[in-house]
């Protein structure tokens, strides 16, 4: 599946007013920032089997504070959600994108680990098939 197919029905936001490069002192990855500089997130179907949203850059700090991410999942930054309980996150130390179950606060409880944003989206779509 290519990029256009993955985002065929996804509703992107407009370009961000400001580029935020870190949240809670954690650096955001370059591939994610490139994506966000163009679209600033959005919501909708992703691929054939996934649905979710990427939070706008200007909301990331508030979202991470609301979920108490550094208390429950230290070292991670929440970037989006499947809107059904799974949070999409990035860990700059491990250099992985992953899903975190918002109802499970055990250490290292994550799934769909991938080294790039594109790989993460493709893995999610395949896992949900």
Structural features:
SMI1/KNR4-like, 29% strand, 7-stranded antiparallel β-sheet, two-stranded antiparallel ribbon, alpha+beta, 129 residues, 5 helices, globular
Give a description of the structure.
The strands form two sheets. Strands 1-4-5-6-7-8-9 form a seven-stranded antiparallel sheet, sandwiched between helices. A two-stranded antiparallel ribbon has the order 2-3. By secondary structure, the protein is an alpha+beta fold. The model has no long low-confidence stretch (mean pLDDT 92). It contains five helices and nine strands. The protein is globular and about 35 Å long.
What is the CATH domain class? Alpha Beta
**Average pLDDT rating:** 92
Count structural domains: 1
Return Rg in Å: 14 Å
From the spread of the alpha carbons, the general shape counts as: globular
Give me the secondary-structure topology.
Blueprint: H1 3-6, E1 11-12, E2 22-23, E3 26-27, H2 30-39, E4 42-46, E5 50-54, H3 60-66, H4 69-72, E6 77-81, E7 86-91, E8 96-101, E9 111-114, H5 117-127
Antiparallel strand pairs: 1-4, 2-3, 4-5, 5-6, 6-7, 7-8, 8-9
């Amino acid at each position: 599946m290519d990029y256009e197919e993955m985002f065929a029905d996804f509703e992107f936001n407009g370009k961000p007013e400001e580029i935020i490069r870190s949240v809670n002192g954690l650096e955001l990855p370059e591939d994610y920032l490139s994506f966000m500089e163009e679209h600033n997130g959005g919501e909708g179907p992703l691929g054939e089997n996934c649905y979710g949203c990427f939070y706008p850059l200007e909301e990331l700090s508030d979202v991470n504070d609301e979920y108490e991410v550094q208390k429950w999942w230290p070292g991670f930054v929440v970037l989006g959600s499947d809107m059904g309980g799974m949070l999409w996150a990035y860990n700059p130390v491990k250099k992985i994108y992953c899903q975190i179950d918002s109802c499970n606060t055990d250490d290292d409880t994550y799934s769909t680990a991938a080294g790039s944003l594109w790989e993460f989206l493709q893995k999610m779509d395949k896992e949900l098939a």
